[in-house]
Amino acid sequence: MNINEARIFNFGKMQNTVFSFTPGINVIYGENEAGKSTLHDFLTAMLFGMEKGKGRAAAGEKYARYEPWHAPSYYSGALRFSVEGKPFYLERNFYHKEKKEILRNEADGEELSIAYGDLKVLLGGMSKEAFENTHNIPQTGAATGKELADILAEYLSDAAESGDAAIRVTRAQNLLLAKRKELNQNLKRIKSEKNQAIHSLMIEKELLERDCHALQGNIADAEREINSLKHVCAEETYKNKSRERESEEILSENRKKPGSAHIVILVCVFAIILNGLAYNCFHYSLSLLLGSEILLALVAVVAALAWKRGKEEKQTVSEGRKPAAHYTDAAIIQSERMLKNLRDSLAEKETRRYNIIEQIEAAQLPTKEEAALQTDLKALELASSEIARLSKEYYEDIQDELNGAVSGWVSRMTGGRYDSVTVTAEGKLQIHVDGMEVPPEALSRGTLEQIYLALRLAVGEIVTREEAMPVFLDETFSMYDDVRLEQALLALSGKKEQIFIFTCQHREMDLLEKLGIVYHKVVLR
Fold first, then answer.
1. Residue 429 CA from chain centroid, whole number
2. Tens digits of per-residue pLDDT, 151-184?
């Protein structure tokens, strides 16, 4: 594939701008802020699209960075490129509310469909992730030798990936690890909440058990009290009945013989009658008659009062023996009511205690959410294991090819100084010099820079067997000295893919001219 022309309608700081490119090496030169990153990102966005993100993270992404403020609907551009000698026209409107994509074969005018994968076929099946991982090569920055060796090790582990390099193994494993951590945190939170709920239920259960134990003691005391009152009531009832029998016997005997008060009254009445007869017969003085009559009447009245009082006293005694039993019955009724209330309260608390026990047992079982999290965790573990297995299998399949490609590129990049480089199944780089293995961290930073570029170019060749893709070098040589830069440019000049070198220096162009390597220059101002 070769990119022939880029038309930027509106993208970041660029509007209505046209750039032409040629096969081979293209140098895009411009000072800082001249627009090199804008053109670089535009080409990538045209090939693989660009979506607007969501949420707060969207503010810092490329879509927001390059979206025109004054005319967002005119956020678009076009690309002319060729595949196997056939010309194609690609146009995109990136504005998320008015997305539009056109893909046309300019040789015969056939309209193709990006949605149905026609563009991906033209790109040899390469995804954006695979392109970023192989053909889009940034500078390593001011990394130390040890840091650059770690970058190489990470990239090597990423290189053992799926056939189209769409899955970076290290990144995928890190994502799975982060997801497992998130799920474990959620699981820990749920278990903590459950334990707190169970703890509260256990406390409530203990309090209810204490209440039930206290109520059982109170019920036992009430039952003993009632039994004691019933015993007292029985004794009082027995004594009352005995007294009633005695009183009835006495009253019965008294009824059989007249009482002394009755006799006195009768004698007084008879004496009054006799005294009146005597007065009529003997005619003694009237004052004597009246005195004797009054005296006898007083005696009769006193006897009648004494009889009445005695009768009242017997009735009081007879009735006075009953209240003890009456009061005892009332106390029994009151105690039995209290006992019933205690038993009702105990039954209620026992029911609540049983319900809490069931709640505790239910809470100790895994919830649906816990079961789902456990299932997801097992799935993530299986996915991690499967990715590692597939990565290893894939690497074993391409090991010889990868080692040959890496060794070739390292040899060309280093002028033949290092011509035997292998990558182990564990993703470690082995460099051999004169039959001895040299660890990467023992190499100079400049050599590691060359090996890093060689490794990415080698992996890129392996994953683009169907269609050669252009290589983007974004300030890749900023830390190279002139000797290493010359070796790199010589190696790149023999590469069949189209090369884009984005730089803010003149060194690349000066050395290309010195070496007699043909290149196309694009100057940004």
1. 41
2. 555 555 554 443 344 345 666 777 778 888 888 8
